[in-house]
């Protein structure tokens, strides 16, 4: 995955406290504070606001596997899955060393996967309305797994999805688990990817790879909203948005006709 490569790249994180991972944490906390039910760690937010937050180390994993062998209380087991991007950090938060985990579920052209369980927390061979007690969605399973396994850590859950509306209009994440923070590619591009690609201290190879990815984001992509398939632009850089705005203004009468 490109984003796992991007967030874990040492070239971009020569100073982790000016790199993309810290920028991501700041961005997610901003939107968590604006979305209903999203997990929001006030201590972490305060440490960033008062400049008493610093990343000491980090690891980034693509397709991070999880496996829960037994039901936990009344919760069913989730027999396996892969978190799209999992970022583990050690950081100083208000002068205390803490572990921070960032879970990113990236949905572009597919709905959440689900698993069905019977009353004993086991998966029936042929699920039907008579033998299914619980239906567990991906985001619910990942939230359950991470908050139980890393219960003493600061855990942040991000739902990354292309949207053709402003994030300000989204009251809660468009996934089954409402603890997630919804974010889109435009926010990542404007606040993290584009600024990094403009840095003068990154390698030429990495600069061109970033620019190619930015071009890819500007191409039409198909999304799946459970029942409807739509074609949208995932993100555009400022120059392209400016040209598009000028084109629309110059041809508004024709476009609206």
Mean pLDDT: 82
Low-confidence segments, given as residue ranges, are 241-248
Largest sheet: 5 strands, mixed
Separation, N- and C-terminal Cα atoms: 42 Å
SS content category: alpha/beta
Shape type: globular
Please give the number of β-strands: 9
Total of helices: 8
Q: Give the DSSP E fraction (strand runs of 2 or more residues).
A: 25-35%
| Main β-sheet, spatial strand arrangement | 1-2-3-6-7
Q: Give, in order, the helices and strands.
A: HHHEEEEEHEEHHEEHH
Estimated radius of gyration = 20 Å
Q: How much helix is in the residues? A: 25-40%
Please outline what is shown here:
With 257 residues, this protein is an alpha/beta fold. It is 33% helix and 26% strand.
Description of the molecule:
The protein is of the alpha/beta class and 257 residues long. Helix content is 33%, strand content 26%. It has helices spanning 2-8, 20-32, 42-49, 138-149, 185-197, 204-217, 238-250, 252-256; strands at 53-66, 81-93, 96-106, 114-117, 134-137, 154-160, 181-183, 220-225, 228-233. The strands form three sheets. The chain has a five-stranded mixed β-sheet, with helices on both faces. It has a two-stranded antiparallel sheet with strand order 4-5. α2 (20-32) runs antiparallel to α5 and α5 (185-197) packs antiparallel against α6. The longest helix is centred in the C-terminal third of the chain and has 14 residues, at 204-217. The protein is globular and about 60 Å long.
């Amino acid at each position: 995955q490109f984003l796992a490569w991007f967030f874990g790249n040492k070239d971009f994180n020569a100073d982790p406290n000016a790199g993309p991972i810290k920028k991501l944490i700041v961005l997610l906390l901003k939107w968590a504070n604006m979305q209903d039910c999203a997990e929001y760690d006030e201590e972490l937010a305060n440490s960033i606001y008062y400049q008493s937050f610093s990343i000491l180390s980090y690891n980034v994993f693509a397709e991070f596997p999880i496996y829960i062998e037994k039901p936990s209380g009344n919760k069913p087991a989730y027999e396996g899955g892969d978190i799209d991007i999992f970022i583990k950090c050690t950081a100083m938060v208000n002068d205390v060393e803490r572990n921070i985990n960032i879970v990113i579920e990236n949905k572009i052209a597919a709905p959440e996967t689900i698993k069905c369980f019977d009353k004993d927390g086991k998966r029936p061979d042929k699920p039907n309305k008579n033998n299914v007690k619980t239906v567990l969605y991906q985001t619910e399973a990942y939230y359950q797994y991470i908050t139980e396994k890393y219960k003493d850590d600061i855990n942040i859950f991000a739902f990354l999805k292309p949207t053709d509306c402003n994030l300000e209009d989204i009251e809660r994440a468009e996934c089954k688990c409402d603890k997630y923070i919804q974010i889109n590619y435009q926010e990542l591009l404007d606040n993290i990817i584009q600024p990094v690609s403009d840095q003068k201290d990154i390698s030429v190879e990495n600069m061109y790879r970033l620019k190619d990815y930015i071009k890819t984001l500007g191409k039409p992509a198909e999304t799946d909203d459970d029942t409807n398939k739509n074609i949208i632009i995932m993100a555009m850089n400022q120059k392209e948005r400016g040209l598009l705005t000028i084109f629309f203004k110059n041809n508004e009468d024709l476009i609206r006709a």
